[in-house]
Predict the structure of FtsX-like permease family protein.
Amino acid sequence: MGKVTRRNLAAHKIRLVLTGVAVILGVAFVAGTLIFTDTMNKQFDDLFSRVGKNVAVDVRAEKVVGDDDGMAAQPVPASVLAALRGVDGVKDPKGNVTGYAAVVGKDGKVVGTPQNGPPQIGANWTAGGSYDLKSGRAPQGPAEVVIDAKSAEKGKLSVGDTAQVVTAGPPQRMKVVGLIDTGNLMGATVTAFDTPTAQALMLKPGYFSDIEMGSTGPSQAELRDRVAKVLPQGMEAVTGEKLREESKSDIASMMNFFQTFLLVFALISIFVGAFIIFNTFSMLVAQRTRELALLRAIGAARGQVTRAVIGEAVAVGVIGSTLGLLVGAGLASLLQSQMGDAGQGGLTFTSRPVIWSYVVGIVVTVVSAYFPARRAAKIPPVAAMRDDVAMPQRSLRIRVALGSLLTAAGAGLIAVGLAGGGGSPVALVGVGVFSVFIGVAMLAPVISVPVLRVLGAPFARLMGSPGRLARQNALRNPRRTAATAAALMIGLALITTVNVLGTSTSASMSAQVDAQFGADYLVMPTGAGSIGTEVPGKIKAVPGVRNASPTYTADAKIAGKRNSVMSGDVAEIVKAARLKMVAGSSDLGAAGIMMDEKSANKHGWTVGAMVPVQFTDGKTEPLRLTGVYTKSDLIGSNVIAEQAYRQHTVRPFIDAVIVDAATTGAATKTGIENALKDYPALEVSDQAALKDQISKQIDGLVKFVSILLAMSVIIAAVGVVNTLALSVIERTREIGLLRAIGISRRQLRRMIRAESIMIAVFGALLGMGIGVAFGAAMQNALADKGLGVLAVPYGTLVVYLVVAAVIGVLAALWPAWRAGRMDVLKAIATE
């Protein structure tokens, strides 16, 4: 039987190669994801090995708002630095200033990728810090700056040049006096000043972000305890080891999420590939039914026949996994190249991707091949004496009943998960989606018959006999057709769901902007920076502008839970957000707060109630609830008095400016942009521009996810090729007879192409129908979260249908070409 397995592998190379392609593509996604995340983790480890490498203890403000803040909001007074110098064991304490700063290149653009990209770091330069000077000297005075060498290269800047520096303040023209060697900072930019300049630009004179120190002998824990004794209230001391672990932990959480995100798409590809492998082995076994029956007749046991087929599956799994691992390395390299500066260096290879590639590839292939192998083993030996031996066709009743049950159960789980029920809503939705896919795949043979009759009618009418034969071939084995179409169904169902959600989100956000955006213009930073206090005045001086009001956003604990709060000129905020008050008024006075209905009702607060608010400085102040407004997605749930905000903030940072204009023509907008020409990191938006920005961000995300899901569609296309190729081999004698009675090669090829198009379009229609249903269900469940408009992208769905037809045409090219080249007499003589 071992020899039989090896000979079968050698005899059916083309068939098994087609099966192997599905394994290769599925495994490649898994291997590529694991190799890529291992590589990025290694780069982050190398990066953080330099952070605080000589730090024994770090002093910072206690985190009072949330435990996951990357940095304490309140700075450390410089007086703490003087007190630390008197602590026994403290070595060379240094105050650090960190914040947002970037440099403008000679092309007038800010160097770096501020929009959701790597950070643009501003810092004070300290001798013996984390970075070394590559050339030039350290900055001295308010007119000098050093920048990292990679930013200098991108901005075409060099030592001695004068460059504009962007911070949360007026434009700064500074001389570049040095370049920093930062190593691989994963795309982040570094701009450093002397300490007084850094404090003035990014914090406040006399304050530090944190203070680090070495040790003259005591252990980190012992020195931490000594330092803690001299710290004022609200400050804490942590060991350098803990500081580094916190930094690594934040990045590890992000990378784990990213890995999980990519692995979900890998599992989808494998799930689709399993359909293809199962279908291929079912057809292979069906074509070799007589051969396997003869083996039984000459004494092979059922177990031997099963093991022979499983042996072929193991061989395909091993070879496919090996090639998939190699393709995965290429995919990881491609992913790394898309990271820009954050993806520098070679790939990191560990045992993890190797092990999982073989486990996934072999297990999926063997499991998919087991059921056809088991059916083959049940063929009675006497069947070998029949010329018309074939695999038995079982009733679809059990399949329909089980498929209906799984579909209904899956829909129920999705409904419960989307409603927020159960312990893990995401898991419920995931299991529900999986169950629906399996259920619909089981029902597909029944669904395919009426659908294919309708889809085949135009082919039969326009193409004549080849069209009728194509329809009959597609209907001949509904199980096979359904299994092939189901693979395409899964990929297109998920892509359609993403598109429906994306289109609905864009439509919902546009509706919210139309309903809630009452400002004439909004000025916001394009990255993580803030706006200088002088900016509102510059905007207000523009002809046609009546008022320019700054707004602030901060974190605070309300009733013990972290919340985002907005502050500023409340009258302008109410006007700009078109707030509708349902109780009280928007007159906050010096210590008032107003909130939306949901938040007020949740706590049982009414107008006049005292709301306990804890600010980032650690102090708690009761604010009087003066008003309650309807839900606003643009400003959030809480607005507090500007005086209360400023009282608890060392340096207020403006995150947006609301512009009230007397005239809203192009001249006014151009005037505002001209007034801010020295602020390249600021963007002026009106209502249309804001909607366009939101739409572009959502479209970008939809395209990214669709590209990842496209792998499953590619695997499904391979499945169509597989099915047609094996079907042509299976129908060799039939094709020979058709040629003998007069069908031309051209007509034969048209028949196979038509059959392929019908299968692909059937799978696409099934998938898009499920996708629209999934998308509508998720939109309905998220309606109270802001997704209030259901929008179906009909134009995109038509494009997908055309793409499915094209996939059908392309998938049929090789099988049709092969069928047309068959020798008629040899084909008729085939058994």
